[in-house]
Structure formats: C-alpha cells, structure tokens
Amino acid sequence: MGRSGLQSGREDRTLPDNVTPLPTRAAVVAPPTDAELLSRCRAHDAAAWDLLVERYERLIYAVALRNGVSAEDAADITQSTFVALIDSLDRIRDEERLASWLMTVARRQAWRVRDRSRQTLTLDTDIETPTDPFADWETLTVLHDALTQLGGTCRELLLALYFDPDEPSYAEIASRFGRAIGGIGPLRGRCLERLRGLIEEDGAAS
Amino acid sequence: MSTQQDPTFTALLDWVEGRLDEDAGRDVEQFVEGSADARASVEWIREYLHAGRSMPLRTPPDDLRATLRGLFRERLAPWAPASYVDGHLDLDTRTQAVAGARAADDQSFHLRFDADDLELLLTVTPASPEEVDVRGSVRASNDDATSVDGSMNKDTAPGIPGRNVVFTSARRVRRHAVCDGNGDFRVSGLEVGVDEIWVDRPDSDVQTRVEVDLR
Questions:
Q1: Are B73 and B89 in contact (CB under 8 A)?
Q2: Are the CB atoms for B141 and B118 separated by under 8 Å?
Q3: Are B196 and B212 in contact (CB under 8 A)?
Q4: By C-alpha distance, which of B184, B187, B212, B201 is closest to B110?
C-alpha cells in the first residue's frame, strides 16, 4: 500500500542544507514547564531563572501584599521567597506544584513580618483582631497550580482577564495576544473549561 | 421538545459575566435552574471569578524585579574573584581556652581571622543541626586591639562600614551581607556547610578570603 498524499508531500519538501527550518507552531508557543525550568536552573541557567521569576513574581508579591504589609515588607517577603527557591532547588520534589510551594513560603514569611510588626505595637494600642486574609487559601493554591499546569496562552489569557487589577478590555487583550477580538470570548471559555478539568482531575487523583 | 442545544460552558460563563442579551440570558437561566450539572458549572465559575478578584496579581516595582533576577546570578553562579589574599584563623574558642572569653550561651563560639589590613570577628550560634546564626564584624587590623572576650571586645578597633561579606560553599554563594555603619553584620539561618567567607575591598578587585568550619 502506498504512502498517503500528506506523508509523501512532507517528505518531498526537503530543505537545502543551508536553510534552517522554521520552528513549528507548537515549538514557538509552548513555554517551558516549571519542571523544565527548575532542571535548567539546577544547571545554573540564568535565563531559566529569569523565566521563573517572570512567571511568579506578580503572584508572590500579591500574596505578600494581601497580608496588609507595607510595600517595603512585601518586597522583602518576595525577595526572601525567591531566595528560598534558590536554596531549595535540589530539594523540590513536587515540581507541578511550584506555584503553591512559592505561595506557602511567601505566606509564612508574611506571618513573620506581621508578628514582628504586632510585637512593636505599644501596649496601649488598640489592637484589632486580625481577620484571616487567606480564608480561601486552598482554593487559591489549587487554582494557581492548575493555571501553571494549563500553561501557555490559556494561562496568560485567564490571568489577564481575571487577575489583572487593571481589568483590561477585550480589545486590549486581543491586541496583546495578537488575536481577533471576536475570538477572545470563546477562547477564554475553552481555557476556563480546561482549567476546571485539570482541577477536577487533580482532585480525583489526590 | 426543545430543539435548542444545551448551553456550552462558554455560554454559562457569558451568562455569569452578564455578556448575553436578555433573551439568551433568560434561556440560559432556565436551563441552569433545571440542570444540576449546569448549576455546578456556574458555581465553579463564580468561585473562580471571586478568587481572581480577591487576590489580583501585582507587578513588583522595577528595582525589586531587577533584584529578583540578579539573585540567581549572585547566588548560584560560580564564585570566582579575580584575585584574593588569605586571612588566617588566629582564634577559635571551640579549641582554644581564652582567658575572659565567654560565649553568650554554652553553644556559641567565637572565631577571629586576621588578614593584611582587617580583622573578621564571628560569633556563631547553632540554630538547628543544619544552620547557624552568625553575628560578625569587619574591623581595621589593629595590633593593640586584638583581645577577644565574650562579646568580642572590638570597641578599640574601628569597624569598617559598607564591606560586602559573602558566604560560599564549594564556591557557590550562599548568603550575602553588608556591614552596617559600625562594621557589623548579621546572618540568620546560614547553612553549616559554608566553607569560605569573602570580604571585599573598596576600589579593588582583590578580596580577602578565610576558610571556615561552622559545625
């Protein structure tokens, strides 16, 4: 039986030796996973570190700020969280849950800062009982782990639509992602449905 | 019998977000009322939207972003100063009894290193089996002020502010401290595997290196 037309068509398109083939769309759009970045960081790849920071700096800074600490303390918390990541590069096992690992480290650092701040208050200060800023902690960690697992355009789109404090319009997002404005709505629906599927799979597995 | 298709997940999302016109919204609403699965989807969507609003992502200031990227290069790149001079250990209260020298507690010990033009004084306190807390001081070398007691009597030697003190293990940076206005520094939770300490010199590529054992 002969080869199909599609297969033979691919083989016929042999490139000259001096021409580098264009990367496939998948190769262009698929960002490295956290596991890949962690592995590269262990090999002292600074570019991989930059990508990890790019991926998580806003999340960690947000966790710190949500504790009601000052911007300066939030910066310290963010920095010490990433220092902890460097120190733990060889010990992190559950690489698919790097987001929640970082969030948890930042939360603990924030507790320390809050405790220290409260200790400096004078006795006659009227101390309000603090409300737990992370009553929905488990939801948030599960969500951000799943968003990382989702990865790529879907993750970026959902973050831009639902986690960006500037609340960009569909037009702005379409421009940012290089897509038609009419495609943003359906795409965000499919992405969110996939996210839900990931969370449910993960919940069923654990 | 209805010929309409069940609303998709995207349609449910559109409805929750108020993006449907009145008629379409009413259809979805009726469907949701009669479908447990659809209600579960809508509940999940609402929880997701609430989570996003409850902790929006915040872009850190530019200087912090630069620091975060620099952390890796500083801490994991091989530490390779262009040139250095070795300091030598001239006091270790773990092995040397020093008259008047007394640690703040039984577990702490003192180390003193001499280099050409400076002294490095350390008080090391175990924090856990794997970590120590270190209080230190970088001081101008002063032959008349080399006595050490329990508080590292250092008042007679001038401290050197602003020096960078780098702790390395197998030539990888583990921690970085900067001397304050009195020449003092403090590092908490330093891993005991640190085997070298480096002190820089202003306007010079030459560093001072000392070998340490913090265990």
A1: no
A2: yes
A3: yes
A4: B212
Q: Which two tokens stand for residue A181?
A: 């404005």
The answer to whether the Cβ–Cβ distance between A86 and B44 falls below 8 Å is no
Whole-model pTM: value is 0.64
Instruction: Determine the angle formed by the axes of helices A170-177 and A181-205, rounding to 10 degrees.
Output: 80
Residue A19 has pLDDT above 90, yes or no: no
pLDDT digits (tens, 9 = 90+) for B150-196: 445 545 678 999 898 988 888 887 777 788 899 998 877 678 999 99
Q: Using one digit for the tens of pLDDT, what is the confidence trace for B77-117?
A: 678 888 999 999 999 999 876 655 555 556 899 999 998 88
Predicted confidence at residue A6, as pLDDT, reads 31
A76 touches chain B (CB under 8 A): no
CA distance A5 to chain B (A): 37
Helix H, strand E, coil C: the string for A69-85 is CCHHHHHHHHHHHHHHH
Q: Does A181 touch chain B (CB under 8 A)?
A: no
The two three-digit tokens of residue A191, written as one number? 């992405």
ipTM beyond cut 0.85: no
Find the CB nearest B71 among A44, A58, A82. A82
A84 touches chain B (CB under 8 A): no
Are B48 and A195 in contact (CB < 8 Å)? Answer: yes
